Amino acid sequence: MLEIRGLTKNYRKFTALKGINLNVEKGEIFGFIGPNGAGKTTTIKIMCGLLSPTNGEVYINGINALKNIRRAKEYIGYMPDFFGVYDNLKVTEYLEFYSSIYGIKGDESKKLINDLLELVNLEEKADFFVDSLSRGMKQKLCLARCLVNNPELLVLDEPASGMDPRARADLKRILCTLRDMGKTVIISSHILTELSEICTSIGIINKGEMVISGNVEDVTNKVYNNQILEIEVTDSPDKAETVLKEMDFVQEINPLGNKLEVSINGDNEQIKTLLKILIIKDVPVITLNKKTQNLEDIFLEVTKEA
Ligand SMILES: Nc1ncnc2c1ncn2[C@@H]1O[C@H](COP(=O)(O)OP(=O)(O)OP(=O)(O)O)[C@@H](O)[C@H]1O
C-alpha cells in the first residue's frame, strides 16, 4: 500500500530525513514511532503530498505519489498533528461541508455522516457547535472528516495527543474497526504504549533515520536477541528449573512460585525444543507463554545514545 525509498529532506543546511525506506502492506496498522524532532511529521507530509522531498520516491498503491499527487491523494485520508476546525459550524454542518467537497450530498451525505458519527462515538454531539467540543472530541471529529471520502490509507499524525484514557481507548476501538474494514493505517506517536496492542507493524525513526521496522514480533526479536517465556507447572518448579538449566540456549531463570520466567537466546525452534525436553523429562507443564515486550522498552533500547 505504501512504499518509501531513499527519502531525504533538507531544511536548508539541516538534514531532517536521511534516506528513509519503508514498506507498509495493505491492511496493516503501522506504528510510526520516534522521539520529538525525529522526522515523523516531515515523512508524513511528504507521503501525503504536502511537502516536497529533497530526494527519494513514494508509492501509494503503486502510484508514484510525487509525480501523480492528485491520483495518490484519492487513496489517502490525512489527519494532521495540528488542525483547524471551523468553530462557527455545528458538527453535522462541518461534516456536510467536507462531504460536499467530494460531491456527496442529500440522503447519501446524511447516511454517511450518521455512520461516521456512530463510528467515532459522537452521535450525541451532532447538533453541537464544533467550538463546544473538547480537544479529544475535536480530534475524533477530525478523524471522521478524514473518512468522508472512504480512503484506503489513513495517515494519522499523533492522533492520541491530548486525549484522555477513555478517548484513547475509543481511538483504539475505532482503529480496530478500520482494520476490520480492510483499511491500512499509519499512525505516528511517541506515546508508545498506546500503539503496542493495536499495531501489526512498527517503524522506529530517530534523528531522520529509520532505525528498525517490521512486524512487532520481528522487531522485538531483532532488538532483543533473547525472548522471555512464562512457564507454569502444576508442581515441582525446582525440577523444571534443573531441567531448564541444562539447555544451552536458556540464559536466565526467574522462579515465581509455580511459574518460571525464562529468558532464552533463540526463536520458535528453541521454544519447541524446550517444550519437548520438559515433557520428555516429565515436568508437569500446564502453560507456556511468550511474554510480549512492551514497545516502550524497544523504543528506549533502539533510540538510546551509543
Ligand atoms: N520548516 C522547517 N524548517 C526547518 N526545520 C524544520 C522544519 N520542519 C521541521 N524541521 C526540523 O526537522 C526535524 C524533524 O521535524 P518533524 O516535525 O518531522 O519531527 P517529528 O518527529 O514529527 O517531531 P514531533 O514528535 O515533535 O512532532 C526537527 O529537527 C525540526 O526542527
Fraction of residues in H or I helices:
25-40%
Largest sheet: 6 strands, mixed
N→C terminal distance: 34 Å
* Mean pLDDT value: 88
How many H/I helices? 11
Q: Which CATH architecture of the largest domain is right? A: 3-Layer(aba) Sandwich
Instruction: Output the structural class.
Output: alpha/beta
Using only C-alpha atoms, the radius of gyration works out to 23 Å
What percent strand?
25-35%
Helix and strand string, N-terminal first?
EEEHEEHEHHHEHEHEEHEHEEHEH
**Assigned CATH class of the largest domain:** Alpha Beta
Total of domains: 2
**Count of strand segments:** 14
CATH topology of the largest domain: Rossmann fold
- Which superfamily, in CATH terms, is the homologous superfamily of the largest domain? P-loop containing nucleotide triphosphate hydrolases
What general outline do the C-alpha atoms trace? Answer: globular
Model regions low in confidence, pLDDT < 50 over at least 5 residues: none
Query: Order of strands side by side in the largest beta sheet?
Result: 6-7-8-3-9-10
Q: Which molecules are bound besides the chains?
A: adenosine-5'-triphosphate
